[in-house]
Structure formats: structure tokens, C-alpha cells
Amino acid sequence: MIVEQVGLSLSRVAALLETLRRRGETVATAESLTAGLVSAVLTDVPGASDVVRGGLIVYATDLKAELAGVDRDLLDAYGAVHPRVAEMLAEGARRRCTADWGIGLTGVAGPDPQDGVAPGTVHLGFAGPGGATVRSVRLDGDRHAVRAAAVRVALEHFADLLR
Fold first, then answer.
1. What is the CATH number of domain 2-162?
2. For residue 108, what are the contacts with CB-CB under 8 A and spacing of at least 6?
3. Model-level pTM?
4. What contacts 157, CB < 8 A, 6 or more positions away?
5. Which letter does DSSP use for residue 49 in this model?
6. I want to staple 30 with a disulfide (CB 3.0 to 4.6 A). Which of 80, 89, 129, 141 is the partner?
């Protein structure tokens, strides 16, 4: 199961989805560095379709603007790995997938820097009924470890936001 490959338990993800279900809310993602892993983890849980609307894989910078609605001027000025980009990804996922919540992830998995940004730099955006927030983290490890940790941190923080 994908959920176990990123270091989460199926029961923990199921509990997050149950919280959404009880609240009558839905979630969607816009993922860059994780390329759909958050959505894959969420949908590892049977019955996830009750609350998971879908997601956007916006690995290429131009798709962040075209599919998720990230401001092109922001991308030109700061590049794809920036806290505001994560926020706009979350807002774009929420809007484009007509979900109550959007989760946006951008960062550098490595092994090389991107646009002068060090590997392990990750920005997580969350947009919901009460507004948007961003959490930036520095994660250690190789490419797989950074991506797996980004999924874990994103879903753990999202669960905290729902409490």
C-alpha cells in the first residue's frame, strides 16, 4: 500500500477522512514535488471517494499557472518553490475541484537545488472554509525520503487543522 510506503498507517489516514466525512467536507490536492502521492495515500482508504474530490499534478511550472491558477508574475519573480505558490496551489485545488479544502505542495526533492533552492525545502499550502495557511519545512534525506516526509507532514498538519 502506498500509505505504508510513506510511513503512515491506514488507520490514521482513515481517521482523517472520517473527520472530513463527519463534517460534510471534501478535499482536493495540487501537487508538484509529490506528483500525486498525497492523493494516492488518501485514496488508499476504502470509501475515500466520499470526501476526496481529486487533484492536480502540476509538476511543470507552467501547469501551476495553467491548471491551478498560480499567478504567473509570482512564478516569474520567485520560481515554483515559494510559500505563496503553495498557498495558491491549495486555493487552486479547492476552486478547480470544487472542494471545501485544498492542499498544495511545492518543494525540492533533490538531489540538486532548483532555482537556487536547496533540496529538502518544502512549502505546504492549505486552503479551507476559513482561509488559507502555509507551513514551510526543511526535510532531510534522499529524494524518496523528502517526498515521503512531505506527504506525512502535509497530512499530519491537515489533520491538525481539522481538529
1. 3.90.950.20
2. 33, 81, 114, 117, 118, 119, 120, 121, 122, 146
3. 0.98
4. 124, 126, 135
5. G
6. 89
